[in-house]
Amino acid sequence: MTTRRRMLELLKETPVTARGLSQALGVSEKEVYEHLPHIEKSLRMSGGIICEPARCLECGFSFSKRTRVTSPSRCPVCRSEAISPPLYSYRQKASKKVDRLNVRNDQRSLTVYSKSERFPDMERFDVNQTKELEKVCEFQEDQWLPSQEARIRDVISEMVGSCEDDRTVDHVGAALIPSKDEIIRILGMLQDVLFPGFFGKQELSPSTLEYHLGNELMNLFEALSAQLSRSIRHECRRTDSLCVKCVQKGRDEAIIFMEKLPTLRHVLGLDVKAHYDGDPAAKSLDEIVFSYPGLYAIFVYRVAHELFLRNIPLMPRIMTEHAHSITGIDINPGATIGKEFFIDHGTGVVIGETTNIGDRVRIYQGVTLGALSVPRESEGGNTLRGQKRHPTIEDDVTIYAQATILGGETVIGARSVIGGNVWLTSSVPPDTTVLIEPPSHIFNERGK
Length: 448
Prior knowledge:
- A five-stranded parallel β-sheet has the order 9-12-15-18-21. A five-stranded parallel β-sheet has the order 11-14-17-20-22.
- The chain is built from 13 helices and 22 strands.
- Mean pLDDT is 80; it is low at 65-71 and 93-136.
- It folds into three domains: 3-133, no CATH class; 182-329, Orthogonal Bundle (serine acetyltransferase, domain 1), CATH 1.10.3130; 335-440, UDP N-Acetylglucosamine Acyltransferase, domain 1.
- Helix content is 40%, strand content 13%.
- Helix 6 runs antiparallel to helix 7, helix 6 crosses helix 12 and helix 11 (293-309) runs antiparallel to helix 12.
- The longest helix has 33 residues, at 206-238.
């Protein structure tokens, strides 16, 4: 009788481990495991031969019945080697009967013949497929261990309790805040309205323009009024103020803002022209509208500034911080910026809340128009809130890369030029050029 036949007979009598089969048959465990995949393949449709999978004695992890055909050596969860071996048995199903087991070594295949009405046809299993099973990770199913679940529950309890601590920040039980994703979508709609034909639907003609703008503006009104209402209601709850008709006020503010769109289009047109005049690398106005980060940051600022002037909370800053995140240009919505504003390259530009910038001003990358240091006391920021902390830049000023101008009393006079890397905390009269002394360069010839 062959080894496989003897193994089958033993499995029919009683459940046994691979080591038990090895001892009963007088063969090595390695030989037992070489035969088990073949037997399991042939008898799986008849009930299978693993009645209890291998289990970790340390953490209780149970190995998959489907993929584990050899003895595991280490637990994938706790990495323990204390593994109880799988228990094998042969359980005949009434619905299916195995008549003949035919092993043909030349074709390396196993064939099972069934007389069941459910399985009238012959089924062929390729033994080579068992090698693929050995490549499959034994840890295919996520399982919660009791100790892990208990620790997660402790974390949940601590996190819930932390929301009652005044030193932490949360937004539980408060009014809805504006949706950041929705505000970004509104910026996209405004971009399409203020630069028609560039974004969104580009196939516009004079005959379809009115329909397109009408549809976009109605959608804009609905989206904008909803977010404005949320912003107003949130501020009322935050300050414990009496909130009256927040929804209606949001719709009124949306109409007021939309009435300013024609003026915004005119101002942004001047900004585009300033970029074209100030950058010889620009090939067309279309290129500037499509691709210049400086213009996008200015567009978002001008939209946010109109809402800032109406004392709309949250939304203006969400807008400008979105532009900051994708362009590297940080313009506070409270800043005042004149016409024909040009930012070249733009990365690292910072313009503070109380900055005043005149008309036809040009600034380059890395320019900071900021405030002096805030006192270290906990209330230092509150004592300066609402005061002018950032400089004033008058008309026709050019500020080159990496220049830093600080302080609310600092005024850069009209038509002045501030050179690169200049640091200023005091005022500059009109028609002045401010430069730093050229550094002393040392040239060493190669080999000396």
